[in-house]
Amino acid sequence: MNGHTLYSIGELARRTGATVKTIRFYSDCGLIPPADRSPAGYRLYDDGAVARLDFVRTLRDLGLDLAAIRKVMERELALPEVAVAHADALDVQIRILRLRRAVLTAVAKRGATPEETHLMHQLAKLSEVERQQLVGDFLDAVFGGVGTDTMFTGVMRSMTPELPDDPDTEQVQAWVELAELSQDPDFRALVRQMAQEETVAHTEGGPPTLHSNVGAIVRDQIAPAVAAGIDPASLQADPIVAVLMTRCAHLLGSRDDAESRLQLLARLERVNDPRRERYFSLLAVINGWPDPESLRPVLDWSVHVLRARMQR
User: 213-237: per-residue pLDDT in tens?
Assistant: First the structure.
């Protein structure tokens, strides 16, 4: 026995904290071969077996399979090479688990039906190329043939979600919701009509945006009234309405005051559609942008002030 200390399988188990069954299994696999046998034929292990067992258990805890561990132990593969391959495989598994967690969390929050759950799962699994195709189809449906070929290039770029390679749960959930929203025919029609209306502003010299030129005008003119707490139905709001109509006159096709107000009201209601704001909020989450400014307070006030005057 060359003077080396040898251990029975039970002693090796006590020294390492592994079970006898585990040591026997690794020994049978050739990962922890016995150094000798007792006269009765029992396996005996040396100090090298202690180190090998610790190493095998570490690699198993890290998720390596027995075939890979055997190749490392027999020096057929270098450990760093195996570690890189395994880390890459874990990255894929982690992304899949994050997608599953995001979908399940969304299902729980929304009380989704089985059909909705299936759709969310499919949207979450899309590859980068498939996501680009889905977004491209939406943008083409909204902006294709509207204005000149390059008029909405900047707008389309600003409306393009770019899910990172390693998204967090919130980003995955935002992507799934945005993808669903982009497939909504009514939302597509809404955004396309807004784009068509923005071509009017563009011909007047202003750049088109999907925050809407009219939305920017309303924000500038109405924000002080909202901040001051002016009642939209009060006479105090009349001068504000007059200024608003003047500022928006170039966007409206009628010279009749009542008709112009009706046109502006319809346009503001489209801009104030909660789906538009939701799209940009989701986009900010996906792309890691700051939360966009909400036009809801000034748009609500503007809609109310115009409705009140139409009822007089």
Answer: 788 889 999 999 999 999 999 999 9
Give pLDDT, residue 148: 74
In Å, how far from its chain's centre is CA 35? 55
Confidence of residue 295 (pLDDT cuts 50, 70, 90): very high
Highest-confidence segment of 63-67, 214-218, 297-301: 297-301
Number of structural domains found in the chain: 2
The sheet with strand 7-8 has its strands ordered as: 7-8, 43-45, 36-37
pTM, to two decimals = 0.69
pLDDT digit string, tens, across residues 195-212: 888 886 565 545 555 545
Residue 93: inside a domain, yes or no? no
Contact call for residues 50 and 74 (beta carbons, < 8 A):
no
Whether residue 135 is found in the same domain as residue 69: no
**Which residues constitute the domain of residue 65?**
7-73
Other Cβ atoms within 10 Å of 84 Cβ, number = 11
- Report the residue count for the chain: 312
Residue partners of 37: CB distance under 8 A and separation at least 6 = 43, 44
Asked whether residue 49 falls in the same domain as residue 150, the answer is: no
Distance CA 128, CA 77 (A): 33
47 lies in a domain?
Answer: yes
Helix (H, G, I), strand (E, B) or coil at 103: helix
Tell me the three state secondary structure of residue 270: helix
- Give the list of residues 6+ apart from residue 123 with CB closer than 8 angstroms, or none: 175, 176, 179, 180
Q: What are the structure tokens assigned to 226, written together?
A: 């909202």
- Containing 104, the helix (H) or strand (E) segment is helix 79-110
Kind and range of the H or E run holding 8: strand 7-8
Among residues 226, 224, 218, which one has the least CA distance to residue 265? 218
